[in-house]
Structures are given as structure tokens and as C-alpha cells.
Amino acid sequence: MMDTPDDLLYSPGHLWVRIEGNRATLGITDYAQMSLGMILFIELPELNSFIHADEIFGSIEHIEETEDLISPLSGKITAVHSALEKKPAILNTSPYHQGWIIVIEMSQPEQVKLLWDARKYMEHYDINKF
């Protein structure tokens, strides 16, 4: 069963976003991790670096190739989940909880309006919840 929590927002690039005030936590969706298969390696950005929306901030290596992680939001990276470098499989086993990737302090909070709710994300990619 594919999990797509209703309390999160989603980017077309298969990232989930949890908004808390001016902070946004990002991770990959269950759909993404299932499509990629076993994740072998993750390249993470530098703490305190600035990222722009639609810019690559890292990459994920799986059995077949490497996929870029593209930020849907602009801001300063205030937390990086560095444990993923040693245990990237967390992204497969717990994408929405232990598998968060970065936290950013948004510089342009209005960009949140461009993100999708769970229903739109599932409809766009024809994902059945059950």
C-alpha cells in the first residue's frame, strides 16, 4: 500500500514538504522510494547553504542510476539529516518520519502555494492510495 499523508504537501519532483511556520522539512515520497528501489547512497547539501527553488540540492543513487533532488522552495538549509549518509536505506523504510532529508528556513514562503496537496499529487501520478 502506497502512503501519501494528507498533512503534507508535495512537489512534482516527488518530494514531500512539512511546513512549520517559516520552516520546511523535505524528504522523498513513498512513491519515489518504491519507484527507485533500494537506495544505496545520498549526497547531501552543506548546512547553512542557500538553495533556490528548482535547483538541485543533492542526489540519490539507486541500483540503476542517480537521481537529482530538486528543491521546490528557496531558503537557507538549517538542518541536514547526515545519518542518511551512513544509512540511506532509511529513505526506503521510513520516508515520512526518519527519512527526512533537510530543513530549510524559507526565504520566499509564497512558493508554498505552488505545492500540491496529497490528492492532487496522487491524481497527477495516478497513484492509488489503497
The CATH top-level class label:
Mainly Beta
What does the overall shape look like? Answer: globular
Please give the domain count.
Answer: 1
% residues in beta strands: 25-35%
Q: Please, how many helices?
A: 4
Query: What is the helical fraction, as a range of percent?
Result: 10-25%
N- to C-terminal distance:
6 Å
Q: pLDDT under 50 segments (min length 5)?
A: none
Classify the fold: give the CATH topology. OB fold (Dihydrolipoamide Acetyltransferase, E2P)
Radius of gyration: 14 Å
Average the pLDDT over all residues and give the rounded result.
95
User: How would you classify the helix and strand content by structural class?
Assistant: alpha+beta
The second-level CATH architecture is Beta Barrel
CATH superfamily: RNA polymerase II/Efflux pump adaptor protein, barrel-sandwich hybrid domain
The strand order across the widest sheet is 1-2-3-9-8-5
Spell the H/E element sequence: EEEHEEEEEHHEH
The number of strands is 9
Report the biggest beta sheet as strand number plus sense, adding barrel if it closes: 6 strands, antiparallel
